[in-house]
Amino acid sequence: MKSILKDLATTAGLLWQKGWAEANAGNISVNMTGVELDLESEFIASGHVVSPVAFRSIGNRWFIAKASGKRMRDVAHDPLQNCAVIHVDSKGDGYIGYYHKSVKEPLIPTSELPSHLAVHDILVKQKSPSRAVVHTHCPELIALTHLRELQSTEAFSKLVWKMIPECAVFLPHGVGYVPYLVPGSVDIAKATAAMVSQHDLIIWGKHGALAIAGTCEEAFDKIDLAAKAAFLFLTCRNAGFEPEGLTNQQISFLRTLGKENE
Questions:
Q1: How would DSSP label each residue in 87-142?
Q2: What's the structural domain count of the chain?
Q3: pLDDT tops 90 at residue 40
């Protein structure tokens, strides 16, 4: 539990320092099934919630997620004061929320919980080693989603690949693109889940980015890489020229290296 909380806190702090988590924006969740919890002495149940969609593969599993209305900068200082623990029902059609006994009022999980659980459901179904999901509002990446020519998985992926070699190596599967859908909705949860089998970094049009990895910090790294590519692209555009970028042949070679090292 301590290592998960440290990972959560460190990542939340990085998101805040980057300027990617204004007010209470962004959310993090971690599958902590198998981690020893002393629920009776440390946590209080906040009640049962029926899920709008059944997540069959994560039945009877445990998660921790940033609570609704909480700030990343506060999560960085004290995760237990700003995160909710969730136990999904055995059939995956609801969950019981828990909050730490030191918190004065019950904590409600993030409004984006349906998307987080939908992603975790696919990860468990596929027996993926990834256990962390990070969503944040990176301004450079959001800015690019307002360009119509980049509003597709193919176009967005090629953009980040061509700007810096590291993106082709560490994001060899590209960037999934989900057109704007209402935040927190079942629709965005389903659209995101459909991308998980092919991409571990997904862009939500006019909204933000969501990354999947073994730890929260590793998920942050994926967003950070794409953000650097977006920053370089926008810098070139602001300077009045179109960036040349890497060639298709160079990108292909680098992606092969990345896939071989997975």
A1: EE-TTSSEEEEEEETT-SSPPPB-TTHHHHHHHHHHHHHTT-S--EEEEE--HHHH
A2: 1
A3: no
Q: How much is the pTM?
A: 0.96
Per-residue pLDDT, averaged over 206-230, amounts to 98
Cβ atoms of 131 and 31 closer than 8 Å: yes
Closest CA to 101 of 42, 49, 56: 42
Q: Which amino acid is at 76?
A: A
pLDDT of amino acid 132: 98
Least confident of 36-50, 70-84, 169-183, 242-256: 36-50
Give the CATH number, domain containing residue 82.
Answer: 3.40.225.10
From the list 36, 105, 112, 262, the catalytic residue is 112
Active site residue 112: yes
Cβ partners under 8 Å of residue 110, min gap 6:
27, 29, 65, 66, 67, 68, 116
Inter-residue contact 108 to 60 (CB < 8 Å): no
Number of Cβ within a 10 Å radius of residue 50:
9
Structure tokens at 126: 């596929």
Full domain range(s) for residue 210: 2-260
